[in-house]
Amino acid sequence: MASNEEVPTLYDWAGGVEAFERLTEVFYAKVKKDDLIGPLFEHMDPGHPKYVAMWLSEVFGGPKRYTEERGGYPHMLSQHLGKGISEPQRRRWVNLLMDAADEVDLPGDPEFRAAFAGYIEWGTRLAVHNSQPGATPPTKAPVPRWGWGVAPPYQP
Ligand code: HEM
């Protein structure tokens, strides 16, 4: 069995920042055309796909660029506050992201996809919660760092 030092980060396993940038580019092209969530992103910053790629890269063990260059967790939180995201909108966001993950060929192995889906499920549910009127989420926190959980990558 591999020792801890030999277990790559999810970021490296995915293919690094280029992989996440391909993912978010395809994903937000779908989002913009979507009837249910497109309107939420009507005034989206043109840099948005790249910023979310930076966020995901940091979460999955890559460089801490979102924290250093983009305001970290407080900035991400501020972007969701008051948006009143509904459960159907959350689910559409997840579905489109998973479609994009297949289209850009993110690794399809069960261990990677389970860890990836685990973070996305967690993060989107928090986004819904934090975006409701009157929500009082913590205003300061580190960007989360997500790992493989109970199933490290299969490396024969
Ligand atoms: C794991 C789940 C999620 C992550 C990691 C995430 C990440 C982010 C980040 C990092 C930003 C700020 C980008 C910047 O620096 O400018 C942002 C903004 C935003 N997010 Fe999310 N988000 C998630 C879920 C959602 C969901 C479920 C929705 C709605 C269906 C949503 C809607 C938005 C909107 C509307 C903005 C502002 C876009 C703009 O006008 O520029 N997010 N998100």
TrEMBL record:
InterPro entries: Globin-like_sf, Globin/Proto, Hemoglobin_trunc. Pfam families: Bac_globin (PF01152). The keyword Iron applies. Residues 132-156 are annotated as: Disordered. The lineage of its organism: Bacteria, Bacillati, Actinomycetota, Actinomycetes, Streptosporangiales. Keywords: Heme, Iron, Metal-binding, Transport. This is Group II truncated hemoglobin. CDD domains: TrHb2_O-like.
